[in-house]
Amino acid sequence: MDYLIVGAGFAGAVCARELAEAGNGVLVIDRREHVGGNAYDRRDANGVLIHEYGPHIFHTNSERVWCYLSRFTSWRPYEHRVRAVVEGRQYPIPINRTTINQLYGLDLDEAGVAAYLAKVREPRDTIRTSEDVVLSSVGRDLCEKFFRGYTRKQWALDLSQLSAGVAARIPTRSNDDDRYFTDTFQAMPAEGYTAMFDRMLGHPNIEVRLGVDFAGVGERIGRDATVYTGPIDGYFGYRHGRLPYRSLRFEHEHLSGVQRYQEVGTVNYPNDHAYTRITEFRHLTGQVCAGTSIVREVPCAGGDPYYPVPNPDNERQFRLYERLAAQQRNVYFIGRLAQYRYYNMDQVVAAALALTAKLLREEPVPVG
Ligand code: FAD
Ligand code: UDP
């Protein structure tokens, strides 16, 4: 079989490798000039390894995904920590014991914080929206201070207009754990993501062509089957209207002579500035250089699609595209943009492994 894979991000690269190892010929195209999709990293003009499309921290509970990627990279252990600036002071986010004690001038132990949260939370019978999630876990004051403004900036929507899963990404803790993630495996690829992708795609059965958009050339490339990892509405010529995707503008900056710009990897700004957060890469990569490189993320409407926007209307619209996708012969849709899911990297890897396992079990019928 000969496969065309559209997109050289996690979805495309994992599918390519799996299909190639099973003896298939694979052509990977990407409209960008590099592999890695949104996880692409590179050295900036000052030699600092930066993430072009915003900070990417690898974390997973899946041993399978961890072992799979470990074939293509060694790792640097890294546990991400984030602070949020509220009224000029920095507090741990996810909200934990320290956050509550420092914010309200209290000295509660773990049980005290749990009791405090039980007192302020506004329980809901059903949890439908992100507002339900936040109000029912931390109550109104913490919601307004840490969540409402950040969410409005990030999505141009109110918490009440987003599905529960968005805010549910951020837990609430009554202990002192200030890690952003608690997954079993948390690490950064030792030489970066792009090096890992180069190894994954470095197989004699894989050809990679960069700077090639599927639109226009797709038909002409002609393969037995296609794996498509771009935005699904684009594939179908926006027949059911444009699916909302949220975009970001990344403002990269190098500060020469500065050893450390901020205490932790990322600082969130829920209520001030146009940007949502600032990330300093040296925390993530462990690089030691003369200066330091940071990135600010400014959410915006146009531009490249980075986030599906999870809410019931958009999910309904996506179902229309999903129905069209199911009718396609030998075309498979996988990944964050094609499945319109707020996937982390590990979830995309797991989805791609599941798809290729299925394809290799039930080989698609060659066309023509
Ligand atoms: P993508 O990486 O988007 O790859 C799709 C590729 O397809 C792109 O390279 C695109 O150029 C190409 N393409 C699209 N259309 C076409 C076309 N018509 N023709 C040719 N090529 C096309 N996940 C984590 O686990 N941890 C994190 O810390 C984390 N941080 C993130 C921060 C930001 C700012 C963003 C935006 C995402 C973050 N993610 C994080 C999520 C992570 O980026 C995704 O889960 C993952 O990269 C998705 O992989 P993918 O292959 O589905 O899509
Ligand atoms: N969020 C928030 N305040 C924060 C951090 C997150 O309100 O300080 C909300 C916001 O809606 C955000 C969502 O939680 O979009 C998910 O946050 P996460 O850090 O997982 O976003 P990502 O890294 O995917 O951009």
Question: Can you put this structure into words, describing what you see?
Answer:
By secondary structure, this protein is of the alpha/beta class. The protein folds into 3 domains: 3-35 and 201-244 and 309-361, 3-Layer(aba) Sandwich (Rossmann fold), CATH 3.40.50; 40-81 and 245-307, no CATH class; 88-168. The chain contains 12 helices and 17 strands. The protein has helices at residues 10-21, 63-70, 97-104, 110-120, 130-155, 164-167, 193-201, 214-221, 232-235, 281-285, 312-327, 345-361; strands at 2-6, 25-30, 41-43, 49-51, 58-60, 75-77, 82-86, 89-93, 185-189, 206-210, 225-228, 245-255, 266-268, 277-280, 292-300, 307-308, 331-333. The protein has a 7-stranded mixed beta sheet with strand order 8-7-13-14-15-12-16. The protein has a 5-stranded parallel beta sheet with strand order 10-2-1-11-17, covered by helices on one side. Helix 1 (10-21) links the parallel strand 1 (2-6) and strand 2. Helix 1 (10-21) packs parallel to helix 12 (345-361). The chain is globular and about 65 Å long. The two termini are 12 Å apart. The structure holds flavin-adenine dinucleotide and uridine-5'-diphosphate.
